[in-house]
UniProtKB/TrEMBL annotation:
Record family assignment: Belongs to the short-chain dehydrogenases/reductases (SDR) family.
Protein name: Uncharacterized protein
Alphabetically ordered keywords of this record: Membrane, Oxidoreductase, Transmembrane, Transmembrane helix
Family matches, as InterPro entries: NAD(P)-bd_dom_sf (IPR036291), Sc_DH/Rdtase_CS (IPR020904), SDR_fam (IPR002347)
PROSITE patterns per record: ADH_SHORT
Molecular function terms, GO-annotated: oxidoreductase activity, acting on the CH-OH group of donors, NAD or NADP as acceptor
Residues passing through the membrane, by range: 35-58
Organism: Rotaria sordida
SUPFAM superfamilies assigned: NAD(P)-binding Rossmann-fold domains (SSF51735)
């Protein structure tokens, strides 16, 4: 017993020391370093403003002139259509899944909506039928807890009985998150996060991929996260599970090339802060605005995702420019610079509670 008490005292002392250093990390940052960070934030904001101006001028001035004089400067490719597709959306009862279901209901022949809660799915089905009519798009709802892989297998069997082997678009949108420091995570939280965020999408993809390959027609969309590009403090379970899903998406894309399955596409979607859902909890650990970017509403994000899918973009970054620049900086900067830079930009603060 005394040995346990001694060990606990040593661990508490370690945490207290770490806590003291972490709480003062901002005060120890040189003034020049802070000035550089602020300059980077201003540059990001300026680039966003310039990109909006360029887009406006292109859409309202240059593009109309090119069309008027029939000048084919940029070739136009046909947009992808989902009119004859059967779409399965996991996490359809959540914020982003709900918004994506509304987007796909405009075109798809059939929707299969899956979520852990049945009531939001029934409400969504009723709303879509009121908007588009019962004959416009057939809608099926399925309740399933993705953390139970046996229940997932049973649900996939039920879906196959209802719809046959006709699902041609899969949207893996369901996710869970626990935002806390590593020592506060329980083993069950890590396990559930990886099952829901990584294993369940992989198993569903494997279940449906054979039919897509046989028809040489299909689209697999994995809603990943910008956290997959670089893990940040207090997101260890979430960011690592999403990074695994991103790597799976890239691997699948390469294997489809080797299989010459030209009609089957796979797309990773990497959103940054969204206005609600699990992102509300994450923002409590840092700034409300990061690099001048305000949280994006879910209906806006869903519209941009649909636009990217129809245009054939892959991956889809939301927003595009800041995440691409961030990914580039992460690739070229050493950890000694990148980690404190990311902490400062996100505004993350220490949350250790083990103190004397």
């Amino acid at each position: 017993m005394s040995a346990l008490t001694t060990m606990n005292s040593k661990i508490s002392a370690i945490f207290y020391t770490a806590n003291t250093h972490l709480r003062n990390y901002e005060n120890k940052i040189p003034f020049g370093f802070r000035w550089i960070i602020n300059l980077i934030e201003y540059i990001f904001t300026l680039l966003l403003f310039i990109s909006l101006i360029i887009r406006y001028v292109w859409n309202h001035t240059i593009n109309p002139l090119l069309s008027r004089f029939n000048i084919p400067i940029i070739p136009k490719y046909p947009l992808v259509s989902f009119q004859n597709d059967t779409v399965l959306i996991t996490g359809a009862g959540g914020c982003l899944g709900h918004a994506l279901a509304i987007e796909f209901a405009r075109e798809a022949r059939c929707l299969a909506l899956l979520d852990i809660q049945k009531r939001p799915l029934d409400d969504l089905k009723h709303s879509l039928q009121q908007i588009y009519g019962k004959e416009h798009c057939r809608i099926y709802t399925y309740r399933c807890d993705l953390s139970d892989l046996n229940a997932l297998k049973f649900t996939m069997t039920t879906i196959r009985e209802d719809l046959g082997d006709n699902i041609s678009v899969l949207i893996n949108c369901a996710a869970t998150a626990h935002f806390k420091d590593i020592m506060s995570h329980t083993d069950d939280e890590y396990q559930d996060t990886f099952i829901i965020n990584t294993l369940a999408p992989i198993f569903i993809t494997k279940d449906l991929l054979g039919g897509m390959l046989a028809r040489n027609h299909g689209h697999i969309v994995n809603i990943v996260s910008s956290e997959a590009l670089s893990g940040s403090a207090f997101t260890s379970s979430y960011s690592s599970s999403k990074a695994a899903l991103l790597n799976f998406t890239e691997t699948l894309s390469q294997e489809l090339i080797l299989a010459k399955a030209t009609g089957v596409r796979v797309t990773a979607v990497l959103p940054f802060y969204l206005d609600g859902g699990i992102y509300t909890t994450l923002r409590k650990y840092g700034k409300e605005k990061v690099l001048g970017i305000t949280p994006k509403r879910f209906n806006v994000a869903a519209s941009e995702i649909m636009c990217g899918l129809k245009s054939g973009n892959s991956p889809i970054y939301l927003p595009s420019l800041p995440l691409r620049v961030t990914s580039f900086l992460h690739a070229i900067l050493p950890d000694d610079i990148w980690n404190p830079l990311l902490l400062y930009v996100l505004g993350r603060r220490p949350t250790f509670v083990n103190q004397h």
